[in-house]
Automatic annotation (TrEMBL):
<protein>
    <recommendedName>
        <fullName>Purine nucleoside phosphorylase</fullName>
        <ecNumber>2.4.2.1</ecNumber>
    </recommendedName>
</protein>
<dbReference type="InterPro" id="IPR011270">
    <property type="entry name" value="Pur_Nuc_Pase_Ino/Guo-sp"/>
</dbReference>
<dbReference type="InterPro" id="IPR011268">
    <property type="entry name" value="Purine_phosphorylase"/>
</dbReference>
<dbReference type="GO" id="GO:0009116">
    <property type="term" value="P:nucleoside metabolic process"/>
</dbReference>
<keyword id="KW-0808">Transferase</keyword>
<comment type="pathway">
    <text>Purine metabolism; purine nucleoside salvage.</text>
</comment>
<comment type="similarity">
    <text>Belongs to the PNP/MTAP phosphorylase family.</text>
</comment>
<feature type="domain" description="Nucleoside phosphorylase">
    <location>
        <begin position="22"/>
        <end position="269"/>
    </location>
</feature>
<dbReference type="GO" id="GO:0004731">
    <property type="term" value="F:purine-nucleoside phosphorylase activity"/>
</dbReference>
<keyword id="KW-0328">Glycosyltransferase</keyword>
<comment type="function">
    <text>The purine nucleoside phosphorylases catalyze the phosphorolytic breakdown of the N-glycosidic bond in the beta-(deoxy)ribonucleoside molecules, with the formation of the corresponding free purine bases and pentose-1-phosphate.</text>
</comment>
<dbReference type="InterPro" id="IPR035994">
    <property type="entry name" value="Nucleoside_phosphorylase_sf"/>
</dbReference>
<dbReference type="GO" id="GO:0005737">
    <property type="term" value="C:cytoplasm"/>
</dbReference>
<dbReference type="InterPro" id="IPR000845">
    <property type="entry name" value="Nucleoside_phosphorylase_d"/>
</dbReference>
<dbReference type="Pfam" id="PF01048">
    <property type="entry name" value="PNP_UDP_1"/>
</dbReference>
Length: 271
């Protein structure tokens, strides 16, 4: 990855009409309905953007969408990249750097995750307060990282406190049950064993997924404030573990997504 490559990606998007977006939004697996809220959308498919990786997962359509939500200019990533698809950390986070260079000042991230904290129920939303990186690497571990920012990045408060406070107030006002907790990111794509769920609980995780952490690390590298939520799609009880049902996970994500959209739309209004 070079600055020149990023500049070419951004130049392409500006020519498409992507004009100084204020907020970047990353949509997780099964969480595509937010795009229906975008007014005057302009689409750029990943396979047309210079140097962009291509989306491979069937649940991901793979495009950047520019437009307005709640009166603010946004750029939405519909389809993200994962380690389990064979991408590296630079691929996974390239879109974050691109959106930042386009001009975003805030980043909203969503994902579908499994609830390790058994007080949390599937269909609920969890506001991510902190995370644990179990992906075995870093998107900042490359030779010329210092050309893009500090090599050693502080992670004492990776999720923006002000936006977290605002989204909690919105949830209270809208009557949306909002849990709070720690998200752990693993490689996947296989789901966890009973022993692994027990381990993750001991480590202090409330929810588990296969994304988000690389993007958040890079956003912190770029000093970009982040708010992130998990849509909890299954309950990871090692004592009553059922075989995984991907169709059900996608269905629950879809049913819970309107709550996430409401939170994001109201937060966009307030910031």
């Amino acid at each position: 990855m070079t600055q020149t490559q990023l500049e070419e990606s951004v130049e392409y998007l500006i020519k498409k009409g992507f004009d100084k977006p204020e907020i970047g939004i990353v949509l997780g697996t099964g969480l595509g309905q937010l795009v229906d809220a975008i007014e005057n959308p302009i689409e750029a498919h990943y396979n047309h953007i210079p140097y962009f990786p291509l989306a491979t997962v069937e649940f991901h359509s793979g495009k950047l969408i520019y437009g307005t939500i709640s009166g603010k200019k946004v750029v939405v990533m519909q389809g993200r990249f994962h380690l389990y698809e064979g991408y590296d950390f630079l691929d996974i986070t390239y879109p974050i750097r691109t959106m930042h260079m386009l001009g975003i000042q805030k980043l909203f991230v969503s994902n579908a995750a499994g609830a390790i904290n058994l007080n949390f129920k599937k269909g609920e939303i969890m506001l991510i307060e902190d995370h644990i990186n179990l992906q075995g690497g870093s998107p900042l571990a490359f030779k010329n990282v210092s050309e893009f920012g500090d090599r050693f990045v502080d992670m004492s408060e990776p999720y923006d406190l002000d936006m977290r406070t605002k989204i909690e107030a919105i949830a209270n006002k809208e009557g949306i049950s909002l849990q709070k907790g720690v998200y752990v990111s693993v490689v996947g794509p296989q789901l966890e064993t009973k022993a692994e769920y027990r381990m993750l609980k001991i480590l202090g995780a409330d929810a588990v997924g296969m994304s988000t952490v690389p993007e958040v690390i890079v956003a912190n590298h770029l000093r970009l404030p982040i708010v992130a939520v998990s849509v909890l799609t299954d309950e990871c009880d090692p004592d009553n573990l059922q075989p995984i049902n991907i169709e059900e996970i996608i269905r629950i994500a879809g049913e819970a997504e309107p709550k996430m959209i409401q939170l994001f739309k109201e937060l966009i209004k307030e910031i």
